């Protein structure tokens, strides 16, 4: 903006300061305790299910400590289904500013509601996340997360606007046009799933453009699991810094946790708004920091739909904060407990295959895991595209199969297919294709 405009319009908002992001650990602890009690009281007064559960646990909403949460049962996807569509909402319908719904790939959709304050909180946390990733006021942000019921597009959009960025609301799809827009409008930041970014990078090449020469310098990537190998591949090809962003519709949407550009060492969970626990996925027992398990989140500021101890199904580990010392970090999500493939008794996640494929010369990062059944025995075929122009690939299938056997512990078939033959992502990619009857 020119200096003249700033002088004329005194209503021009300045990028919001965010003191809570920089609280010291004691300050954060006090704030969190206050918000936890407010949330318990709000849930108790307004959501029948929670009133029952809080009574059964003998909890006093106004005196509870974080450790007392362990006395409450988890809130599960099943609870959301049983109260579909709005039975867990804590405010009357007319106070809702917006509704989103999760994709429902593993069952019926889940509807989530937001008051106007919830939207403001979400925007502020997304603004904080974009800034932590290295974006700032004045940057142009290309949002290629889907717009609509999915929280990715609108969540990123409002956050980028709140930070003072120029937003290109590209949404997912129409890949050739997206590349054209990036080349012409020269955004610095892109927000997109890692697999759709791969699709975009291939399209750059198809259009005779080198993605490394593009204006993009920061990628804020999430909504699906990805590995360090994928980060290296994307950073090398796209010439940008790729940072991980995490979130889920039930809890808010993107912006629950964000990796900081200065340390790039896992994702800081914004603990002034979310209380995380790690639990044993089988027994439900609360585990300590540093232990691997399932992430459980209690919202601390949600008005429309507070959730107590929501089981995310996402597997990770909590660690002390670094770039934002008061907020703990979580490791990259290795997978969801319900995405886990169990093949002949061995548990595995698609990210384990991604690591092996990205570490193998001559292969592209485009792959699928196809489950089939022969003679009542489950089979897994890794279908992976050769890298464009790669040659001498004859030994590769055996090499990959051997690495899978030694690192994951199962025997699989490996099928190396021609470039450009597997389905491409336009958002969240479906990695596992289950053809078992
Ligand atoms: O995927 C919200 C989102 C949008 C996050 C854009 C980040 C960026 P849902 O559709 O409800 O919401 O899916 C949530 O996606 O429980 C994880 O299993 C997975 N997921 C989200 N972010 C990551 C990530 C959005 N960074 C589910 N790494 C979550 C791994 C992720 N998995």
SSE diagram, text form:
Elements (H helix, E strand, L loop, with lengths): L2 H6 L16 H22 L1 H9 L20 H6 L13 E6 L9 E5 H17 L7 E4 L7 H13 L2 E4 L5 H11 L3 E4 L1 H13 L11 E5 L5 H11 L2 E8 L4 E7 L7 E3 L4 E6 L6 E2 L4 E8 L10 E10 L9 E2 L4 E2 L4 E3 L2 E3 L1 H9 L4 E12 L2 E10 L9 H12 L5 E5 L14 E3 L3
Parallel strand pairs: 3-4, 3-5, 5-6, 6-7, 18-21, 19-20
Antiparallel strand pairs: 1-2, 7-8, 8-9, 9-14, 10-11, 10-12, 12-13, 13-14, 13-15, 16-17, 18-19
Bound molecules: 5'-O-[hydroxy(phenylacetyl)phosphoryl]adenosine (DLL).
The site of 5'-O-[hydroxy(phenylacetyl)phosphoryl]adenosine has 22 residues, from helix 6, strand 7, strand 8 and strand 13.
Radius of gyration of CA atoms, rounded to a whole number? 23 Å
CATH topology of the largest domain: Rossmann fold
Mean pLDDT: 94
- The amount of helix comes to 25-40%
- Characterize the largest beta sheet: strand count, sense, and whether it forms a barrel: 13 strands, mixed
* Ligand set: 5'-O-[hydroxy(phenylacetyl)phosphoryl]adenosine
């Amino acid at each position: 903006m020119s200096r003249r405009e700033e002088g004329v319009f005194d209503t021009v908002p300045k990028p919001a300061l965010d003191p809570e992001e920089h609280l010291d650990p004691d300050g954060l602890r006090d704030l969190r305790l206050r918000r936890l009690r407010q949330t318990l009281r709000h849930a108790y007064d307004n959501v029948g299910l929670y009133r029952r559960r809080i009574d059964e646990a003998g909890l006093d909403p106004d005196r509870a400590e974080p450790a007392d949460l362990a006395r409450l049962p988890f809130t599960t996807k099943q609870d959301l289904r049983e109260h579909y569509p709005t039975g867990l909402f804590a405010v009357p319908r007319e106070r809702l500013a917006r509704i989103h719904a999760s994709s429902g790939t593993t069952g019926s959709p889940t509807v989530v509601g937001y008051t106007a304050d919830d939207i403001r909180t979400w925007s502020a946390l997304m603004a904080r996340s974009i800034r932590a990733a290295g974006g700032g006021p004045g940057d142009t942000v290309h949002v290629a997360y889907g717009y609509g019921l999915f929280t990715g597009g609108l969540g990123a959009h409002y956050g980028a606007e709140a930070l003072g960025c120029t937003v290109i609301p590209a949404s997912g799809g129409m890949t050739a046009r997206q590349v054209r827009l990036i080349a012409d409008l020269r955004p610095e930041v892109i927000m997109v799933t890692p697999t759709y970014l791969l699709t975009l990078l291939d399209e750059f090449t198809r259009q005779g453009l080198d993605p490394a020469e593009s204006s993009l310098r920061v990628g804020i990537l999430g909504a699906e699991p990805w590995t360090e190998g994928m980060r290296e591949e994307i950073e090398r090809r796209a010439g940008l810094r790729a940072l991980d962003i995490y979130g889920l519709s039930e809890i808010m949407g993107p912006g629950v946790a964000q990796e900081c550009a200065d340390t790039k060492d896992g994702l800081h969970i914004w603990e002034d708004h979310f209380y995380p626990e790690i639990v044993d996925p089988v027994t439900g027992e609360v585990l300590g920091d540093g232990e691997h398990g399932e992430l459980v989140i209690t919202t601390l500021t949600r008005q429309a739909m507070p959730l107590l101890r929501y089981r995310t199904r996402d597997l990770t580990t909590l660690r002390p904060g670094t770039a934002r010392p008061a907020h703990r970090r979580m490791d990259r999500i290795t997978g969801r407990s319900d995405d886990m493939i169990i093949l002949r008794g061995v548990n595995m996640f698609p990210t384990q295959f991604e690591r092996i494929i990205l570490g193998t010369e001559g292969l592209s990062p485009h792959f699928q895991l196809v489950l089939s059944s022969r003679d009542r025995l489950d089979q897994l075929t890794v279908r992976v595209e050769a890298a464009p122009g790669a040659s001498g690939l004859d030994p590769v299938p055996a090499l990959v199969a051997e690495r899978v056997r030694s690192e994951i512990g199962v025997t699989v078939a490996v099928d190396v297919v021609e470039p450009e033959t597997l389905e491409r992502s336009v958002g969240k990619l479906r990695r596992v294709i289950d053809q078992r009857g």
